[in-house]
Design brief:
With about 200 residues, the protein is an all-alpha fold. The chain is about 60% helix and about 0% strand.
Length: about 200
């Protein structure tokens, strides 16, 4: 597990998470299939398969715990994987078989899992930006996954941040959350095209 010591000194978990993951976030943003100057449906299919291969094992792993972000009543379950599968079933999309899932620690603390969830939830904010950029050029594809919730990602993100701050408060918990977030970024970076160049 990653242990970003400098960010763990920060008293606010959100600031610590942003600091701990900043360079990874930048690498990912520049290496996504949809970061091409003129992305097409093949790029969207590559993006979806990458996210599916990252998200499916994470969601299955999180579901195995009785506490943490997946059990917070303010954060109802979402159908992210179903949206990905529906988008991949659209005409013109090329779906590839799922890759072997990464393993995640069975003894991870709730704070570590809050850090992982921070990356998952944050990805929906980026999806909304991409949706606005691509809804016209990739029409008539509905871009369900990027569109996400009808109300947009803002209300859920605010609820997530409030719950995160309520559950991750001590310096040890913040360090665990930063480790989880860094590991979640590393897992998707391992699937991103930038690591294959």
């Amino acid at each position: 597990m990653n242990r970003p010591n400098d960010s763990a000194r920060d008293t606010d978990v959100l600031a610590a998470l942003r600091t701990a993951t900043a360079s990874r976030h930048e690498r990912l943003d520049s290496g996504l299939p949809l970061s091409a100057p003129l992305p097409d449906l093949a790029d969207y299919a590559a993006h979806l398969t990458m996210v599916r291969d990252w998200l499916a094992p994470l969601e299955a792993w999180l579901a195995g715990f009785d506490d943490g972000p997946q059990r917070d009543p303010t954060l109802p379950p979402t159908a992210r994987l179903a949206l990905i599968e529906a988008d991949l079933a659209e005409p013109g999309m090329v779906d590839t078989p799922p890759r072997a899932p990464a393993s995640w620690p069975s003894d991870a603390s709730a704070a570590y899992r809050w850090g992982v969830a921070y990356v998952i939830e944050g990805s929906q904010l980026g999806g909304a930006v991409l949706y606005g950029k691509l809804v016209g050029p990739l029409a008539p594809h509905p871009l369900r996954y990027l569109r996400g919730l009808d109300v947009g990602p803002g209300p859920r993100w605010r609820a997530f941040m409030q719950a995160l701050r309520a559950h991750v408060t001590s310096q040890e918990q913040i360090a665990d959350a930063c480790a989880g977030a860094c590991d979640a970024f590393d897992a998707i970076l391992a699937l991103a095209p930038l690591d294959k160049q």
